[in-house]
Design goal:
Layout: H1 10-20, H2 30-44, E1 49-50, H3 62-73, H4 87-101, E2 110-113, H5 115-127, E3 136-141, H6 145-154, E4 157-162, H7 170-179, E5 184-190, H8 202-215, E6 218-222, E7 253-258, E8 271-275, H9 277-281, H10 296-309, H11 314-328, H12 340-354, E9 358-359, E10 363-364, E11 367-368, E12 374-378, H13 384-392, E13 396-397, E14 399-400, E15 411-415, H14 424-437
Parallel strand pairs: 1-13, 3-4, 3-5, 5-6, 6-7
Antiparallel strand pairs: 2-8, 7-8, 9-12, 10-11, 12-15, 14-15
Length: 440
């Protein structure tokens, strides 16, 4: 980039990028981008429009805060938590799944984890080791980059494809092209999707479920953004419509439910891994290569989760149990509490598109993409790597779709959570300058 008048001084951004040691900003991980922006903000004294990291931008659930404080006052901080989870949380999480997904899972299959990150890590340790011949995960992408990093850390294999051109009935043949070889152990996706915000419908989930049963594959469904397709009202306990889930169509499933986004409780690192009853009780002789038992559920708890952290924060479990109970009892509407993310996305997308940007993943099959926690952008004539670096000079940060498994080499993921409504005029002004400098 040649020096020009930009909101953040050219010399500072250029120097910090060079000193970062990153070969290419567009290939940097989310946390590396965070670190880079922190340094530029400190040296320039200018605050960024921060869209790079999916952290909650709303206050945490007060019900959770109060329950956790009460548990700590009672001395729970001095006691190791049960690895399988406290009974209150297991019971209320099972209720939540019944009331909002219309799925029955016994309390035994509800396992608290240190956020969905640890839930996924434990699920990979189990699903990719139950059968020596099935050693590969298939990611339905684009997706959360760190889950592939977890596979690299564990030395596990994976394959991936960008699902955008294979929606609806086309999904079956695309999936089956990977499954017939017999090496796929696991299918993983998020719904709503991070980063594209596409939402699989029941027809697509039925295809995934039927093929999982046919080929004996475990589906890991990441529900980090549970109920956040705001085009539907999933907020009424026990009443349709229910959050769509593959658990309706196969018994080979693990659900990851996070408290970070839907309850704004990210700091306490608490979520649940919910294993379907049949899978939980199923025996896999090959598990004995790594664990003392061939029972999937038992080995998940006392083999994988125990080895990873010896349980999940004790007081945080009481917090999540209290939140689930109040949601289940209809005392709080958790969807109403997070609809502001959709409002921010609508405003931000309008600002970007008016300044010449395009929405990369703009359709949910034949409907406009929903307004939610993420959206994707591109600018004509620029690659992902070029665009992410260029926007740094304008005080705007995001991550490249290159690291998400996307086939779109021109796009970025934008997260709305840290962009406050009062920052919208600043975003608009900076993008106006960007558009003027790139008018050619």
């Amino acid at each position: 980039m040649q020096p020009k008048s930009t909101p953040i001084p050219f010399e500072i951004v250029n120097r910090v990028i060079k000193e970062s040691g990153l070969p290419q900003v567009g290939k940097a991980s989310i946390r590396e981008v965070v670190r880079l922006i922190n340094i530029i903000e400190e040296e320039s004294g200018q605050k960024f429009i921060r869209m790079e990291m999916g952290v909650p931008g709303l206050p945490p659930s007060q019900i959770g805060v109060d329950a956790e404080i009460e548990a700590i006052k009672k001395g729970i901080g001095a006691i190791y938590p049960p690895v399988e989870g406290i009974p209150e949380l297991k019971y209320e999480a099972s209720r939540f799944i019944k009331l909002f997904l219309d799925i029955d899972i016994g309390d035994a299959g509800i396992i608290p984890t240190v956020g969905s990150m640890q839930g996924g890590f434990a699920a990979f340790l189990m699903s990719c080791r139950r059968d020596a011949k099935k050693d590969t995960t298939l990611f339905i992408d684009p997706g959360f980059p760190v889950q592939k990093q977890q596979h690299n850390v564990l030395g596990l294999k994976y394959e991936t494809f960008d699902v955008y051109e294979y929606r609806g009935t086309k999904l079956r043949n695309k999936l089956e092209s990977y499954l017939f070889n017999g090496n796929i152990s696991t299918i993983l996706y998020s719904n709503p999707n991070n980063p594209s915000w596409i939402c699989f419908n029941n027809d697509e989930l039925k295809i995934i479920g039927e093929l999982a049963t046919k080929y004996d594959i475990i589906v890991i469904e990441d529900l980090a953004y549970f109920g956040m397709d705001f085009r539907q009202d999933y907020s009424k306990p026990g009443q349709p419509p229910f959050q769509p889930t593959v658990a309706k169509y196969t018994e080979n499933y693990i659900l990851l439910i996070s408290s970070s986004k839907i309850f704004s409780y990210a700091g306490q690192r608490i979520g649940i891994m919910a294993i379907g009853d049949k899978l939980f009780n199923q025996s896999f002789p090959d598990l004995k290569r790594f664990y003392s038992s061939d029972k999937f559920g038992y080995s998940t708890i006392y083999g994988a989760v125990y080895a990873l952290s010896s349980g999940t924060g004790h007081s945080a479990q009481y917090a999540l149990a209290a939140i689930f109970k109040n949601v289940n009892d209809g005392k709080i509407n958790f969807v109403d509490g997070i609809k502001e993310y959709g409002e921010r996305a609508e405003k931000m997308k309008k600002i970007f598109t008016e300044k010449g940007f395009k929405i990369v993943y703009d359709k949910d099959i034949d409907k406009p993409i929903a307004d939610g926690f993420y959206f994707t952008i591109s600018f004509p004539g620029m690659t992902s790597a070029e665009l992410i670096e260029e926007l740094l000079y304008y005080g705007i940060s995001a991550i490249s779709l290159d690291i998400t498994g996307s086939e779109r080499g021109d796009g970025l993921r934008a997260c709305v959570s840290q962009v406050q409504l009062q920052q919208m005029p600043i975003l608009e002004d900076r993008l106006k300058t960007f558009a003027a400098n790139h008018s050619a």
